[in-house]
Amino acid sequence: MSAVIDAQGLGKRYGRKWALTDCTIEIPAGHVVGLVGPNGAGKSTLLNLAVGLLAPTAGTIEVLGDEPAGSPEGLGRVGFVAQDTPTYSGLSVADHLRLGAHLNPTWDQGAAESRIDQLGLDPDQKAGKLSGGQRAQLALTLAVAKRPELLILDEPVASLDPLARREFLQILMETVAEQEVSVVLSSHLVADLERVCDYLVVLVASRVQIAGPVDDLLAEHRRLIGARRDTDALPANQEVIESSHTERQSTFLIRTTDPIFDPAWTVEEVGLEDLVLGYMGQAASAARNERSTLRLHS
Amino acid sequence: MIEFHLDTRSGVAPYLQIVQQVRRALKLGLLREGDQLPTVKEVVGRIAINPNTVLKAYRELEHDGLVAARPGVGTFVTRTLSDPSLAAHGPLRQDLGRWLDKARRAGLDDESIEALFRDTFRSAREEGVA
Description:
By secondary structure, chain A is α/β, with parallel strands linked by helices. Chain A is 36% helix and 29% strand. Chain A has 2 domains: 3-204, Rossmann fold, CATH 3.40.50; 217-297, no CATH class. The N and C termini of chain A lie far apart (47 Å). Chain B has helices spanning 14-27, 40-47, 51-63, 86-105, 110-129; strands at 36-37, 67-70, 74-77. In chain B, helix 1 (14-27) crosses helix 3 (51-63). The chains are: A alpha/beta, B mainly alpha. Chain A binds chain B through residues 32, 166, 169-174, 176-178, 191, 194-198, 215, 218, 269, 271, and chain B through 6, 8, 11, 13-14, 40-41, 44-53.
C-alpha cells in the first residue's frame, strides 16, 4: 500500500532550536492513524510540514506522493484542521461554507450543508459565538467538504469537553465510513485513540519509537510479572521496553512474536495506553542517559 | 435493532466486544434470523469507533455463519444461537446462589469469591483443553 506521508531524515529548525530532527516515517494509506507523543516531540511540526505550512530545513517529505502543497491539485487532496480548530470569528457559519466553495474546486456544498444541519448549527451564527465543540465541528466540516484523500488533524479534541469530544469523533468516524479518506490525527488522549485509530505512531523527541497496526502492536506486547530477575536474563526474542523492580518482584513490558512458556511469569495483555506510556518512558530514560553521558564528557 | 456499546476499560478488543454482544443477543433471543445489524456508519456514528473495527467484527460473525452481508443492503442474521441449555440456567443459578451463601458464611469476601471462581474456572478449562 502506498504511503500518505513519507518523510526521510526530515528536520525543522527555528533559529538555533531544532523542533524536529532526522525524522523518518512512512504512514500507509487507508488507516486512521494516531500520532502520539509528549509535548514538544515534534508532532505539530511534522503535521505542519506535511501540509506545506512549513518548509523543511533538512530532509524530504512527500504527501500522497507529491511535495506538500506543491500544486493547486495537491492542496485539494489534503484536508487540514490545525490545532485549536481555528475559524474566522467574524464570519458566519454560512460565510465559512461560501468561502470553502470559492476556494476549493472539489467542494461538496450539499454534504457541507447537510452536515451543518445535522449538527444543529445556525448558518447565520458568527463563528466567534460558537462553543468550542461547535467550532471544532465547523472546522472539520470545512476540511471534509473538499473531499480530501487525506485528512490531517492536529490535536483536534484536546481542548474539548468529553461530550463534545465524543461528538467530534462520531462525525469523524462517520466520515471515514462514508468516504475513502485516510486520516492522520495527533493527540495525547490515548483513550480516544484506542477507539478510533487502527494504526499507531509513537513519536518521542523527533524519533519514531514504534509504528504499526494497533491490533498487531497489542498482540506483540505482553506484561510479565514475577520474582525479581535481571533484564539480561530474559530470552533474546523478548525485547524489553520497560522494566521495574522491587526487592522481590520484577515487571517487564516486552515485545515478542513468540509464545511465552516460562511458568515463572504471570503474563498479561497490555492496553494501548500502557503500551504508549512504555515507549514514551523508554525514550525519556534514553534521553536522560544521553544527557548524563554528555555531562560526563564535558 | 441491536445497539452496541464499548467498554474501554475491559481490556477486551473493541471488535471482540461487538462480536460478543451479537452472540449474547442471539443467545438471549434479542436478535433473530432475518434481523438486520446496524450499518457500519450507524455504529461508528453512535459509539465513535473505527469503521474497520466494525467490519472486522461483522466479518468474524459472517465467518462463524451467524450473519450474511447483502451488498448495498446491509448485514442480516442468518442463524439463531438459541441455546438448548437455556432450560438448565435456572437450576444452575440456584446452585450457584447456594454456593455463594456458603462461601459468605465461610467468611469469604467478594474479592476472594471472585478470585476463587476465576482460578477454578481457569484450571478447569485448562484441564478440559489438555
